[in-house]
Amino acid sequence: AGEGSGPVPGDGAGPPAPERVLFPPTFSVSEIKNKQRRHFMFLRWKQQQRKEKLALKKKRRKEREALGDKAPPKAVPKTIENQRVYDETTVDPNDEEVAFDEATDEFASYFNRQTVPKILITTSDRPRGRTVRFCEQLATVIPNSHVYYRRGLALKRIIPQCIARDFTDLIVINEDRKIPNGLVLSHLPDGPTAHFRMSSVRLRKEIKRKGKEPTEHVPEVILNNFTTRLGHSIGRMFAALFPHDPQFIGRQVATFHNQRDYIFFRFHRYIFKSEKKVGIQELGPRFTLKLRSLQKGTFDSKFGEYEWIHKRREMDTSRRKFHL
User: Fold this and answer.
1) What residues contact 92, with CB distance under 8 A and at least 6 apart?
2) In Å, how far are 32, 196, 308 from 311, measured between CA atoms?
3) Shortest CA distance to 6 belongs to which of 296, 15, 100?
4) Torsion angle of C-alpha atoms 267, 170, 203, 261, degrees rounded to 10
5) In 177-313, where do the E strands start and end?
6) CA–CA distance, 192 with 59 (Å, rounded to integer)
7) Continuous H helices in 105-173
8) Where are the alpha helices (DSSP H) in 91-217?
9) What is the value of pTM for the model shown?
10) What is the residue-wise DSSP string for 16-31?
């Protein structure tokens, strides 16, 4: 199908190809047998698509300028987010049942300012250098956190020791092939415990245009798009890691942004350029989390009662269905 579409420019055979490529209606680039020519024709097709899209955009803009105030409102583009399937567990902030659950759940003592967060960060057995550096940098983000190494201890033995030393949360960073790939977050002493898959980890030295080292000021915490009951619980777990009353003088902010059930973590510092302009500097580290399970109580992989488990074949049937 592609052999009759004209010679390749620069091969010395025939006149140069016209700028506008007219493909037949039934043309398929995949039918071209030659790999190099197939790739070349695909690039030409993509270039043609971009030109047509740009020309249509300019035409619509001129039409709107000509109509002025009579121009119709701009069409809202369809995205996976605004086409999301409604979830019956979406939280209403004014719901009395939700307010009662918040007042009696495992995090109530934190939000009532009865407890101060104290975090233990540990790793899997024999962590490699990258995981160790990630834990050390994570400890500079979360105030009042302490890094200890497993030394072969089982998690079931670590948790009672954490409770005896008044730790409120336990974070375990797991790794595979020297790369951090999992995070277990357990709220002490009564749970719950969340297990996340971790990806796209970037340490400070790997971030371009990063700012200076973070200070010891308590950061501000931003939680975005945790709308369902499950997402509400996960958001409260993250909030309970940071002390109340952030020190705004430090201009540091930790963000947990949920989008399509992927939780993106970023750590920034505000830069006030003038009275009206504000910029941000990323301090790092950065990573992405995907919830695998939420378990009642503390970590117990064998006899634990699970509130929610991600089942790919049952839950991932629609791209517009989200759980957080």
Assistant:
1) 98
2) 40, 14, 9
3) 15
4) -60
5) 179-187, 193-202, 220-224, 252-259, 262-272, 278-282, 286-295, 306-309
6) 56
7) 108-111, 129-141, 155-164
8) 96-104, 108-111, 129-141, 155-164
9) 0.77
10) PPPSS----TT--GGG
pLDDT above 50: residue 276: yes
| Helices 229-239, 96-104: inter-axial angle, 10-degree rounding | 40
Please, which pLDDT band fits residue 17 given cuts at 50, 70 and 90? low
DSSP tag of 114: S
- Residues 298 and 63: beta-carbon distance below 8 Å: no
Amino acid at 61: R
Q: Which amino acid is at 244?
A: H
Find the largest Cα–Cα distance for the chain.
84
What residue segments make up the domains of the chain, in order of their start?
Answer: 29-69, 87-316
Q: Which residue has the tokens 């010395």?
A: 12
CATH superfamily placement of domain 87-316: Brix domain (3.40.50.10480)
Query: What token pair was written down for 218?
Result: 């308590």
Is 80 exceeded by the pLDDT of residue 16? no
DSSP state of 248: G
Average pLDDT over residues 28-46: 86
Are the CB atoms for 82 and 76 separated by under 8 Å?
Answer: yes
Average pLDDT value for residue range 243-267: 93
Average pLDDT over residues 244-261: 93
